[in-house]
Every structure is written in C-alpha cells, then in structure tokens.
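User: Here's a chain of 312 residues. Predict its fold as tokens.
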Amino acid sequence: MADTATIAAPVPTVPGGRGTVGTTALTALAPLSWGTTYLVTTELLPAGHPTFAAVLRALPAGLIALALTRKLPSDSWWWKAGVLGTLNIGIFLPLLFVAAQRLPGGAAATLGAVQPVVVAVLSVLVLRERWSVWRLSWGLIGAAGVGLVVLGPDAALDPVGIAAGLVGTVAMAVGVALTKLWGRPEGVGPVTLAGWQLTAGGLVMVPLALMQGVPSGIDGSAVGGYVWLGLVGGLIAYTLWFRGIGRLPVTATALLVLLSPLMAAALGATVLDESFTPVQGVGFLLALTALVAGQFQPTRRIHTAPGAVLLA
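Assistant: Prediction complete.
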C-alpha cells in the first residue's frame, strides 16, 4: 500500500514541561502585581502628577537593583538599555498613571488588554516568528473577555485617557518584542536587566516630573503606595517579567498581561464592594480561558504511513 499523509486536528502541547509551568507561574506574578496599580493610584496616591508617581515607581527600584548587582551596561547595551527603558518604563508608566487617573480603572485596564494582540503582530514583523493564529485568536478573545468584565454602560471614556492608555500599551508591546529580540548579555541576570531599564526609564521621566512639581498631601498612605508600586510592582515584578520573556514564547508571555485587568476587577469587587454581574462573570471566564489556552503551542499530528505518527 502506498504511503499516505493525513493531518489530524491541532493538538496543544506545552514545551518545557514542569519547568515551563513554574516559569509561567512566576512570570504571572508580575501582571498580577500591576493589577493593583489602579486601586493604589485612586485610593492612596495624591491626584494628578502622574509622572512623579511613575518616577518614584521606577528610579529608586532601578538604583536598588544596580546597587545589589554592581553591574553597568557595556558596549551596545548602553543604548539598548536606554531604548528598552524608555519603551517599557519611561513612556509606559507615566501614560499608565494618566490613564488610571482619567479613566475608570476597568476602562484603563481594557486598553492594556490589547497588548497581547500587538505583541502577536510584532512577533511576526520584528522577531520573524511564524504567524500564530492560535495565540492571536486567544488574544482577541481575552481582550473581549476583559472588556466584558470591566466596561459598563456608564464608563466615562475620556479621550486623553484613551490615547494615553493606547500609546502606553503599544510602547510596552514594542519593548517586549525588542527585549525578546535582544535577550540579555552573557552573565547578566534578570535583576540586572530590570535595574538597567528601571533606571534608564526613571531618568527619562525626571525632567517632566520636575516640570509638574511635587504633589501636595503626601501622607503615610501615599508613601506606602509608592513603596508598594516601586518594590513589588517595580523591582520584583519587572525582574520576574524580563526573566519570563527570556524563557517563554513572547506571545504566550504577553497573554499573561490579561491578569492585570482581572486583578484590578477582582480588587474592585473585594475591596471597593463593586458588584459582579453575570455578564462580567462570563467575561472573567473568557479571559482566564484565553490566557491559559495561549500558553499552549498547537501542533499538527501527521500520519506519514500506516501506524506511523509524527508531530509537526
């Protein structure tokens, strides 16, 4: 009998086994911590001065990382660290605070949920990866799910807030793609890479922060909020994030960003007593399904001959 070749349905697989699962779980802690930004910003920080808040989140954390690692960039990594720091920190963070202050937390979070879709496109254009309809589709489903969770009919959609959220999201998506493309220099760990970027991004924001001035009314709660955002949402989160980008597929990593708006919504329900409707419950399940499914890599089962099965 002549050899035959038939293709079965896609079979999702996760390369890397338990190590990949552990790396994914640790990486997921970063967007979970970022999901607290909206609550901390609106409930603990003084209103206005988004760049000041962004500087305090980034620069002290970056300097602490540099003090711990005692390693500075060399050669081309001076400008690479500057570019990555500007995209991931210097542009993204102040625009994040602008969006958080001008939009309902849910609306701001929804804009960030489109990042996996942008990263999926950039992975093809910048990283020359194969087009993944699987992960792009789950990215769109996840963004739709987040929209169901956090957007209501009474959401006030301020144009400036929307523009800030979208530009910040695209800037970080480009930063994620370039972080994956450039990797890390030999002997440089994720703490060092995070320190370089946090410091560079913080320095980029200092002139604008000085122009805006120091906000009044910085009390103990505000100090606690700044410390939380700087250490947990800054140094620890970005260290885990850049570690994950180096070890996981970039589009799969980007899908974990969906955890940020889901965390924001969960905190709104538990801390601020915001109610959850059945539609929001469906959106929550959609978003969770999308970010989990996006961690799998679909393959095709190919029958090359009777009794022989290959995975492509």
